[in-house]
Amino acid sequence: MHIISSLIFAFSVNIDAFLVGMSTGIRKIHITIVQNLIISLISFAGTLLSLLLGRRILYLLPDFLTSCGGSILLFTLGIYYLYKALSAPDNSLHSESFTVTLSLKETFLLGAALSFNNIGIGIGASMSGIVLLPAALLTFLTSALFLSSGNILGNTSGLRLCNRYADLLSAIMLLLLGICNFAL
After folding, report:
1. How far is C-alpha 61 from the chain's CA centre?
2. Alpha-carbon torsion 78, 81, 85, 88, what sign?
3. Residue 30 and residue 127: Cα distance in Å, rounded?
4. What is the separation, in whole angstroms, between the first and last Cα of the chain?
5. Is the backbone of residue 32 left (phi > 0), alpha (psi -120 to 50) or beta?
6. Which of 86, 114, 140, 172 lies 20 to 30 Å (CA to CA) from residue 77?
7. Quick one: pLDDT band at residue 96, thresholds 50, 70, 90?
8. d(CA 81, CA 3)
9. 95: alpha, beta or left, given left = phi > 0 and alpha = psi -120 to 50?
10. Cβ atoms < 10 Å from Cβ of 139
């Protein structure tokens, strides 16, 4: 069950990587393998640090409180993303403005932005008992996979619908992760 929780965690924190990949693909910007690895490694490092921070908090509080607190935090983040998805205008797309090619600086900033998104979720997941190494490794792998597949698929106009509903999908995943971790 820990692998399933880690996989749900990795998918939920990397929905944005898919959106960024799609956004750049729609603009006909190719993300190279090296840029993808840099972005994914930065996201991995940020996620790992947030999971470690959650572990530190875990030792300061009683077991029942950290498990419940982490699950509640994940559930709350899920509710936040659900609210965000339901209150967004129908025509809203997550769009970042990039130049024709990504510079090294833009690559690092993109990696930092994607990892920043994982901080609160990582702390909450760690406090709820998610296993550190599988969660961090699956985060790296899904980040690389989502970023490249989003970039490739971004050239198709039909995927704009997925982009619009990404917050809703992320919310559902976070709600499920919070419920699963609370139930275990």
Report:
1. 26
2. positive
3. 37
4. 9
5. beta
6. 140
7. very low
8. 23
9. beta
10. 30
The number of angstroms, rounded, from the C-alpha of 3 to the middle of its chain's C-alpha atoms is 16
Token representation of residue 100: 């024709």
- With tokens 């699950």, the residue in question is 71
Least trusted range by pLDDT, from 14-28, 104-118, 123-137, 149-163: 149-163
C-beta of residue 132 within 8 angstroms of C-beta of residue 52: yes
Q: Report CA Rg, the chain.
A: 16
Of all residues in the chain, the percent with pLDDT exceeding 90 is: 12
What whole-number distance in Å separates Cα of residue 138 and Cα of residue 145?
Answer: 10
Contact in structure between 70 and 54 (CB atoms under 8 Å): yes
CB-count burial class (<10 Å; 0-12, 13-18, 19+) for 1:
exposed
Q: How many residues does the chain have?
A: 184
